[in-house]
Design a protein that fits this description.
Layout (H helix, E strand, L loop, with lengths): L1 H58 L6 H16 L3 H24 L1 H5 L1 H36 L3 H7 L23
Helix pairs in contact: 1-2, 1-3, 1-5, 2-3
Length: about 180
């Protein structure tokens, strides 16, 4: 009887340890997903902060291009108000399209194209786009690991018990799936 009790206790302890390790692994992955989303948010905010400066710089050279500038500002405001990966992705695609039209204006205005402030802002936005791209990829990779973990045996049971829900990927839509074409 004593040996059976010891075996049962050992099995219970091992099961408890496995359960705790699975739960802690899921919590770590969930936190990584949230951190990855926060990094996307930081980079998007950086880009959103640069846009008003770009618009002001362009205004001085392209005063009759008011509609283009308003589209950029409107897209930025919509992106700043977006929530969740899908809504954020759609709004950011609009921002990218609006920025393309501003950069296209530089072709029509040689003085703007040569303006050092415009060139600096353009470089900063390009750098932001690279950072956003990396942050999106890291987020999607992390979401993939998390979603896989909560769907695979045996952690699927722990995930179900503690309501670890699947996360959405940050996906580009339509024309945003291809590279951004900006000519200078």
């Amino acid at each position: 009887m004593g040996t059976v009790l010891i075996v049962l206790v050992v099995i219970a302890v091992v099961a408890g340890l496995v359960f705790a390790l699975m739960y802690n692994g899921l919590v770590k992955l969930r936190n990584k997903v949230e951190n990855a989303w926060a990094q996307i948010d930081v980079q998007l905010k950086r880009r959103h902060d640069l846009i008003p400066n770009l618009v002001e710089t362009v205004k001085g050279y392209a005063t009759h291009e008011k509609e283009t500038l308003e589209r950029v500002v409107q897209a930025r405001n919509m992106a700043a108000a977006a929530t969740g990966p899908q809504e954020q992705a759609q709004a950011e695609n609009m921002v990218s399209g609006a920025l393309k039209s501003i950069f296209a204006l530089s072709e029509a205005y040689p003085d703007l194209k040569a303006n050092q402030n415009f060139l600096n802002l353009q470089e900063e936005l390009t750098s932001s786009e690279d950072r956003i791209s990396y942050a999106r990829q890291f987020y999607n990779d992390t979401v993939n690991r998390y979603n896989t973990k909560i769907q695979t045996f045996p952690s699927v049971f722990v995930a179900g018990m503690f309501r670890f829900n699947q996360r959405e990927y940050f996906e580009a839509e339509g024309d945003a799936r291809g590279p951004v074409q900006v000519s200078f």
